[in-house]
Write a structure and sequence with these properties.
Blueprint: H1 2-19, H2 30-38, E1 40-50, E2 62-70, E3 75-80, E4 90-94, E5 103-115, H3 116-123, H4 134-143
Antiparallel strand pairs: 1-2, 1-5, 2-3, 3-4
Helix pairs in contact: 1-2, 1-3, 3-4
Length: 144
């Protein structure tokens, strides 16, 4: 079990290196990447938006993810989709790049008990349209 967790952590760390920008200039160094991955999450918000260019959302005809807030107040969107990442389909992006179409569905106070890395690992590395999509991943992240 420990080796699987280490593998998932290594994959998530690689994913973060590819998919997020730093607090400063958009390029994460090893130390910044590690800091983000290990950052405690204080607030998590499950969010939804219309799928693609649709102006409406109905159940699964939408996209969902989890916006997390860290101790320093920075916000990051953790979400999943087919071909979103290289080593994992769950990716992390700066929340300030989110459109105004996103709406909060559920809020959770994690009080620093989980890290960004925990959310990425819980989101999962594989994507399946029916059984492991953005909706299932965001539900798992909020329920961890």
């Amino acid at each position: 079990m420990w080796s699987i967790r280490m593998l998932v952590s290594a994959l998530a760390l690689t994913l973060l290196a590819v998919s997020v920008g730093s607090w400063s200039d958009g390029n994460l160094s090893g130390a910044e990447l590690t800091r983000l991955y290990n950052s405690p999450v204080y607030l998590a918000e499950r969010m939804k938006r219309p799928l693609g260019s649709n102006s409406f959302q109905i159940g699964p005809i939408s996209h969902s993810g989890v916006r997390v807030t860290l101790r320093d107040g920075s916000k990051w969107l953790i979400h999943k989709g087919q071909n979103y990442g290289i080593s994992s389909q769950t990716v992390v992006t700066k929340a300030n790049q989110m459109s105004s179409d996103w709406r909060v569905v559920r809020t959770g106070n994690f009080q620093g008990r989980k890290t960004v890395g925990d959310f990425v690992a819980t989101g999962g590395s594989n994507y399946d349209f029916l059984f492991d999509n953005c909706h299932w991943a965001s539900i798992r992240m909020m329920n961890q």
